[in-house]
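2024-03-11 09:14:02 INFO receiving multi-entity request
2024-03-11 09:14:02 INFO entity count = two
2024-03-11 09:14:03 INFO echoing inputs for audit
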Amino acid sequence: MIAALIARDVHRGSTGATWIPAAFFLLVVALIPFAVGPDAEVLQRVGPGVLWIAALTSALLPIERLIEPDRADGVLDQLAVRGMAEESMAFAKIIAHWLTFGPLLLIAAIPGSALLAMSGESLVRTEIALAVGSVGLASLAVAVAAVTSGFARSGSLASLLLLPLAIPLLIFGAAASAGGHPSALPLEAAVSLLLIAGAPFVAGAAIRAART
Amino acid sequence: MTALLRFDGVTLRRGGRLLFEDLDLALGPGEALRIVGPNGSGKSSLIRLAAGLLREERGQVDRAPFTLADDQAALDRELPLGRAIGFWGGSPGPAMEKLGISHLADVPVRLLSSGQLKRATLARAAASGTFLWLLDEPLNALDSDGVERLSNLVTEHRASGGAVLAASHQSLAGDWRGLELGE
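2024-03-11 09:21:47 INFO inference complete, emitting structure
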């Protein structure tokens, strides 16, 4: 059942507007040279941090369609009727969300790094950090989507919730991308693991609470 | 005879409001029970409690494997109807045939009328192959042909040992026990 749900969500995601977060990510990155000027040295220095800010903001875009449509349409109820735990539903949604969000983001980071005049070495470090961080970001997005589902204007509320919670990921992720302290990447991975381990329980409880 | 659904002294409260108290009911194979009562008397809540989607405050609910059809279709809007129902497993073909929606199998769910969507929801439930059916307002949006098809389906289901718990303002064909809420 979990596999079927993942396959369904990936299919739904990939027939919809999957490319929008990646396109938004690139657009934000493309704006930076206009804002700070075309000085390659400056761009190189801010590059990894800019990619992270762009990744965080683009992660906000799909939140509203992660949980709410399935809650409103009774899909979550029908899964529960078939004996699926709410935590399993949330876990499947995290996996499916990452599959439609993570890889495209990593691909978009390649032209993004070129726009910021980043070196190949810097790009590789950023790709690794983004790959690790996007898992945590996808978990956080699903948890926040579940907590805010059913509220009016849940999208803006979700942004307010997600961004502060993503700060640890941003700190360690950006540091790992910039080739800072060598323990930045392990710490980022730890935050990501914490998020993917905790998010299904938060989201599961939120889905149950939304029924009463 | 073992009951497919049994409530023992069940009390349900929602949002601080007591909907019913010390409710006992048992539904055995071949039986059908229709819940009636004014709007807001807790009919849908009783169905959702029977489905395990709400928790009883006191008492105990025992249920056999079941299927639930309510106002929410739980069918992917972009998919053709046949595939959307197929996601939920079972064998939807015969149920779709009996509810007269076989010809819609290739039509995307988002293009269906509300009556067609109701038939599809009922077909999804009927296709599950479980003995206990929980139906919340199954007649909403159905035309006379749909009502007749559903009645035949329910009769057939009961004849083969199934049980039905339905919340409905309109009466359904056949021999139903009644339970009135909100007195």
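2024-03-11 09:21:48 INFO post-check: Chain A touches chain B through 15 residues (CB under 8 Å).
2024-03-11 09:21:48 INFO post-check: Chain A has a mean pLDDT of 92.
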